[in-house]
């Protein structure tokens, strides 16, 4: 797990350089991720999905 903490600054810098308009969420615990994802479990995309 230590390698994750050591490489995190490099990963965040790469995201900042290459994905400037991306929304980045950093979760420090599995519970935080579960709380973030739980509203998405009931999501239903609109019919047609925007395809032409």
Structure description:
With 52 residues, the chain is an all-alpha fold. The protein contains 2 helices and no strands. The chain has helices spanning 2-18, 30-37. The radius of gyration is 16 Å and the shape is flat. It starts with a helix and ends in a 15-residue tail after the last helix.
Cα Rg:
16 Å
Strand content: under 5%
Average pLDDT number: 85
Q: Provide the helix percentage.
A: 40-55%
Record field, number of beta strands: 0
Order of helix and strand elements from N to C terminus: HH
User: Helix- and strand-based class?
Assistant: mainly alpha
Ends distance: 45 Å
Helix count from the secondary structure assignment: 2
- Globally, the shape reads flat
**Biggest sheet details:** none
Low-confidence stretches: none
Give a topology summary.
Layout: H1 2-18, H2 30-37
Notable traits:
52 residues; mainly alpha; 2 helices; 0% strand; flat
Structure, briefly:
By secondary structure, this protein is an all-alpha fold.
């Amino acid at each position: 797990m230590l390698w994750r903490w050591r490489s995190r600054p490099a990963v965040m810098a790469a995201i900042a350089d290459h994905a400037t308009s991306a929304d980045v969420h950093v979760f420090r615990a599995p519970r935080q991720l579960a709380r973030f994802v739980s509203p998405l479990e009931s999501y239903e995309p609109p019919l047609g999905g925007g395809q032409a």
